[in-house]
Design a protein that fits this description.
The chain has five helices and eight strands; from the N terminus they run H-E-E-E-H-E-H-E-E-H-E-E-H. It has helices spanning about 10-25, 90-100, 110-120, 160-165, 190-215; strands spanning about 35-45, 50-55, 70-75, 105-110, 125-130, 145-150, 175, 180-185. A hairpin with a 2-residue loop joins strand 1 (about 35-45) and strand 2. Helix 3 (about 110-120) packs across helix 5 (about 190-215). The chain is globular, with a radius of gyration of 17 Å.
């Protein structure tokens, strides 16, 4: 399906959902500076052909303007004539969509996700045991154990992509970049938001638990 074949109302819905989630996350302080990026896929999906709306590069996410988003294809190239540039990390969104077929991907920078990614860097994953919010990932095992993958962070974005390809797992809808932030995804904006909120709760829980345990040693 070409971009021109995608219904106008589907494009408008994606932009409206991005506006709402951007406003919510900004109110929580999850976009320090102009950091973070959001995207929602539109139209049909094939791993080698799809389109999505993504935040434009360098925009203040605490305000709304007509230039906050643009539509790009599976290679991160704009689908329409525009002076806007997609987020610098759009290639990461492209790869996650190709590998998962997700409907939305949200990326934020918080103190907790950045600190915890460095704390467990040598392990290359964040271990989590029995936390209630694991159920947010549709994992219902009693006292479930999960490992949230952490990958290297490079200034050159294409260098990050191969490691993401290697480390993504089907049961964990997210991946951490070292000292950078979390990418979370889902079948739609609602599910991606739920997953992101679950990750953020878990990161803060693991951080505070580590402090308590270290203090008792």
């Amino acid at each position: 399906m070409s971009f021109l074949q995608i219904a106008l109302e589907d494009k408008q819905r994606a932009l409206s959902e991005l506006r709402d989630v951007k406003e919510l996350f900004a109110s929580r302080g999850w976009f320090p500076g102009t950091s973070g990026n959001l995207s929602i896929r539109v139209g049909d999906f094939k791993p080698d052909e799809f389109q999505f709306a993504v935040t434009a590069s360098g925009k203040d996410k605490t305000v709304h303007t007509p230039e906050d988003y643009l539509f790009v294809d599976q290679d991160g190239k704009p689908c329409e004539a525009t002076r806007l540039k997609p987020s610098a990390e759009t290639l990461i969104h492209c790869e996650i969509y190709k590998l998962t077929g997700a409907g939305a991907i949200f990326h934020v920078h918080t103190v907790f996700n950045s600190v915890i990614s460095e704390y467990f860097w040598n392990r290359k994953s964040v271990p989590v045991d029995g936390v209630e919010l694991i159920k947010g990932f549709n994992i219902w095992d009693e006292e479930a154990h999960i490992e949230i993958p952490i990958v290297s962070n490079f200034a050159r974005i294409p260098s990050i992509v191969p490691e993401i390809t290697e480390r993504i797992t089907s049961n964990i809808p997210g991946i951490l970049l070292r000292k950078h932030g979390i990418y979370a995804w889902g079948a739609n904006a609602f599910e991606a938001k739920r997953h992101l909120e679950a990750f953020e709760f878990i990161f803060e829980y693991v951080y505070r638990l580590e402090l308590l345990q270290r203090g008792n040693r």
